[in-house]
Write a structure and sequence with these properties.
This protein is of the alpha/beta class. Helix content is about 45%, strand content about 20%. Strand 4 and strand 5 form a beta hairpin. Helix 6 packs parallel to helix 7. The longest helix has 23 residues.
């Protein structure tokens, strides 16, 4: 009670940003990455075939361990199966002590991990949204901006994971005239 779904929270956030209602599609019937890819393909089959590439912006990605990371592993697998190129811009693992590669290829996916400070700082900042935003967002915005400056012709969709990345994706989509898709991965109380 009193909690909003990810879709409802994202919808409210997009409306606050001034996005018109008719430009927002809230899809709540699917629950797996495979179902979501099928949904997208069935609703825009001709545009899926024409996709050059998808830029995935996320603070968290494998080998970091978590739900978002598992979801994105599934998403990359599905994009590879559908022969869609993807590019991931993310941080080095923030909450999992492990080794990682700064640049990695997984099928048609190119992953770029940016070294970042503060191992285990994120969980401590989660209770403080402004500090969390300042810790996660500015550097990923700067790195993503410069990546797009030199690679904008490789992609036509920006897919942001979470609200910090959505903030970045919204700015970059406007600057570089790209479509922007935002996925949230949490339930928020009374937003």
């Amino acid at each position: 009670p009193g909690e909003l779904t990810e879709a409802e929270t994202a919808y409210n956030y997009l409306r606050k940003l001034g996005i018109p209602k008719n430009n927002i599609l809230v899809e709540v019937k699917t629950s797996t990455t495979t179902e979501q890819i099928k949904f997208i393909k069935s609703h825009q089959p001709s545009s899926m075939a024409a996709i050059k590439g998808i830029l995935i912006l996320t603070p968290f990605f494998s080998p970091n361990i978590g739900g978002v990371e598992s979801h994105l592993d599934d998403l990359i697998q599905q994009l590879n199966q559908h022969k869609i190129k993807s590019y991931v811009l993310t941080y080095s693992p923030l909450t999992t002590k492990t080794t990682y590669l700064a640049k990695e290829k997984n099928g048609l996916c190119q992953i770029n991990r940016f070294k970042w400070f503060g191992y285990q700082l994120f969980p401590k900042l989660e209770k403080y949204p402004l500090l969390d935003f300042l810790y996660i967002t500015p550097y990923l915005l700067i790195r993503s901006f410069f990546w797009l400056l030199f690679n904008q012709n490789k992609i036509d969709i920006i897919h942001s994971q979470g609200f910090n990345a959505a903030f970045i994706g919204n700015i970059l989509a406007k600057i570089f005239h790209k479509k922007h898709l935002c996925s949230t991965h949490a339930i928020y109380e009374n937003i």
